[in-house]
Amino acid sequence: YQRRVHGRSEPMSRHSHHDYQHAHNQHGAYRNHDQSAWHATGPARVAGAGIDWDRIKHAMPTGKSPEQMARRNEMFRQFDPNGNGFLSLAEVDRGIRDVLQLDEIFDCKPAIMRAFQAAKNVAKSTNTAHHNDDYVERIEFRLLLVYLQQYFELYQMFSAIDTSGDRRVNIEEFTAMVPQLQAWGATHITDAQSAFDEIDTDHGGMILFDEFAHWALSQHLKLADHSE
Predict the structure, then answer these.
(1) How far apart are CA 189 and CA 206, in angstroms?
(2) Could you please report the per-residue DSSP string of 178-218?
(3) On the CB side of 88, how many CA atoms lie within 13 Å of its CA?
(4) 3-state DSSP call for residue 14?
(5) Contact call for residues 92 and 79 (beta carbons, < 8 A)
(6) Element housing 86 (H / E)
(7) DSSP string of 25-83?
(8) pTM of structure
(9) How many Å separate Cα 72 from the centre of its chain?
């Protein structure tokens, strides 16, 4: 495990996922280094503006051709420097920065966390020497790459709606962005409050990214400015 301190990597003791996120919060990795990179002021912010989607797609070999599989196998080896066949959240985080060299995704910790959580339980290993529920295995690596792209895209939508930049969406922000949500594929929305209540599953009066992502996936939302 490593942590980022003043721009360099230092050893870090093994954490659970929640401990790891807390540790990163303490050192600022989960805070915005440049607030303008996450949120422009006002409701006119365009989701995904300035992002090189083709570069992101090329950096993550998710296909099933022999060439893509070979690239993916080599990439897993680089993500897994100790060679144990399991990737911790810290190793995934470091691999995005050092192997994929995708700073825009490395800075998007909510997307990394969601992708990791989604991928790590897809396949169950018979290797009982590890706590398999805490790691991404080699067989799950392709889906991890798929989910990283998917949740990163969803976070661009979420942050476009979240015009205040507090990583929560209130009813006013949501209502203002209903036409954009419809353009992304949520064509069934006819009443903003009803849709908001549907997404706000914990009834906290705010939509969090996890809630939005779960709903957006069920609606098959897609940004209009790049292809699959």
Answers:
(1) 18
(2) HHHHHHHT-TT---HHHHHHHH-TT-SSSB-HHHHHHHHHH
(3) 21
(4) coil
(5) yes
(6) strand 86-87
(7) HHHTTTS-SSHHHH--SSTTPPTTTT--HHHHHHHS----SHHHHHHHHHHHHHH-TT-
(8) 0.77
(9) 19
Q: Which two tokens stand for residue 15?
A: 């954490």
Strands 86-87 and 8-11 turn out to be unpaired
Please state the rounded mean pLDDT for residues 33-54: 59
Give tens-digit pLDDT for 58-90. 999 999 999 999 999 999 999 999 999 999 999
Q: In angstroms, rounded to a whole number, what is the distance separating the alpha carbons of residues 135 and 16?
A: 10
Instruction: Report helix, strand and coil shares of the chain as percent, to nearest 5.
Output: 55, 5, 40
Q: Which of 2, 26, 28, 38 is nearest to 159 (CA)?
A: 38
Tens-digit pLDDT profile for residues 135-189: 999 999 999 999 999 999 999 999 999 999 999 999 999 999 999 999 999 999 9
Phi-psi region for residue 200, left (φ > 0), alpha (ψ -120 to 50) or beta?
A: beta
CA atoms within 13 A on the CB side of 182: 11
pLDDT > 70: percent of the chain: 74
